[in-house]
Amino acid sequence: MAEEKTWQPLELVKVTADYLAGKKIPDARVDAEILLCEVMGLRGRVDLYAGFEKEVTPQQLASYRECVRRRAAREPVSRILGRRDFMGIRFTVGPEVLSPRPETELLVEAALEAFLPKKKPLEKTSEEAAAEADRDAARPETEADSRERAALDRLLDSYAEDVEDEAELERDGEISVKPKKDAIRGARPADKIPAPPSRKFPVTLDAPLVRALDLGTGSGCIAVALAAKMPSATLVAVDASPRALALAKRNAAAANVLDRISFRQGDWLGGCKAGERFEAILANPPYLVQGDPEIWPEVAKYDPPLALYGGKDGLDCYRRIVPDAPEFLAEEGWLFLEVGAGQAAWVRDLLIKYGFRAVGVVRDYAGVERVVKGKAPK
Q1: Closest Cα partner for 235 from 320, 251, 243?
Q2: Which of 38, 111, 168, 270 registers the highest number of CB atoms within 10 A of its CB?
Q3: Three state DSSP letters for 89-108
Q4: pLDDT, tens digit, for every residue of 244-299?
């Protein structure tokens, strides 16, 4: 019996990427790299490239083949790994919830911008900047630095690949490239242009006391991210699914914010109590149309239908949320809604119809109108 071929990581990645590309998998090479990092126990793709001379063990190869088989069947990478990063926080995901999307970070960022105190970044004086540059230039290169630089130089000569900071290349299983259409509809453009990374919102201790409501919390990503970035905030997170709530609680506990989030089972604002008021209400409701031929197989086959479809035109949930929201908003409270491509104008007009003030729209990095916001009616 012939011995099985031994593989080096980048050789295996190339073969896998070609195979996945043949199956019409978007971002085939990135997926191949991330899955191999997982089975080899590497921290990220940069480590994969730096260790290009290693050999993949038979056990790792067997695990990798199973991961590749699942990805070729259009199972999302986040589902294969069982996790997804959102706003710098790691979330457990599963079949009971929609995996957090990069576009939803814009929804959280819109709320943070409304409530966090505005501060100018501290700027270095020219003397401080020059002194720092001198210190960096004077730092001697260690033997380890030299070995690593030489290895990366050989790698780049051999494979003609750019090695960049993994934080700008990946979001735990998905490349940080913004499609021109919805993140869950249509094909990614052939000319993948990396989008700017999300803005960084540091934890702010002097933020105002904000009470926020997350409707349809799913994995809990919106509520948990807000709680993590605003230690003064308290939140209510509502979802119709008991299984989703159980997972969201686990994610809140893992992020050490469970004590500031109240999880409730309910149908949109039906999960609120009479007389409650919130400074912010956020929602990423289902907005897809059942049977839409452009929905990715990764979404249609693996995300829960309850979190995807919003009726014949995708707008049913907005028709329920917007009219009832003023009853639960504080006097100067804000409503923030994520919308699908082409829906912003309709949702904006709906907010205006119900008396919301300062109604505005936030575009994502691909120019799609992604978030509609408005201040509570007088």
Answers
A1: 251
A2: 111
A3: EEEECCCCCCCCCCCHHHHH
A4: 999 999 999 999 999 999 999 999 999 999 899 999 999 999 999 887 878 888 88
84: β partners = 91
The mean per-residue pLDDT over the stretch 20-36 comes to 92
Is pLDDT at 223 greater than 50 in this prediction?
yes
- Please list, in sequence order, all residues whose beta carbon lies within 8 angstroms of the beta carbon of residue 139, skipping any fewer than 6 positions away: none
Contact 321, 272 (CB under 8 A): no
**Ranges of H-type helices in 7-142:** 9-22, 28-40, 45-50, 58-72, 77-81, 104-115, 126-138
Percent of the chain's residues with pLDDT above 70: 75
**CA 36 to CA 228: how far, in whole Å?**
31
CA distance 264 to 121: 38
The 3-state secondary structure of 304-335 reads: CHHHCECCCCCCHHHHHHHHHHHHHEEEEEEE
For 296-335, give one letter per residue: b (16+ CB within 10 A) or e: bebbbebbbebbbbbeeebbebbebbbeebbebbeeebbb
**C-alpha pair distances (Å), 152 with each of 53, 137, 161:** 11, 20, 10
Whether 328 contacts 299, CB under 8 Å: no
Which residues partner with 234 through β-bridges? Answer: 211
d(CA 317, CA 301): 22
- At position 37, the amino acid (one-letter code) is C
Q: In the 8-state DSSP scheme, what is residue 261?
A: E
Kindly give, in sequence order, each residue whose CB lies less than 8 Å from that of residue 171, ignoring residues fewer than 6 positions away: 84, 85, 86, 102
List % helix, strand, coil for the chain (3-state, nearest 5): 40, 15, 40
Neighbours of 17 (CB within 10 A): 18
Neighbours of 162 (CB within 10 A): 8
Q: Is 82 left (phi over 0), alpha (psi -120 to 50) or beta?
A: left
Which one-letter DSSP state was computed for residue 16?
Answer: H
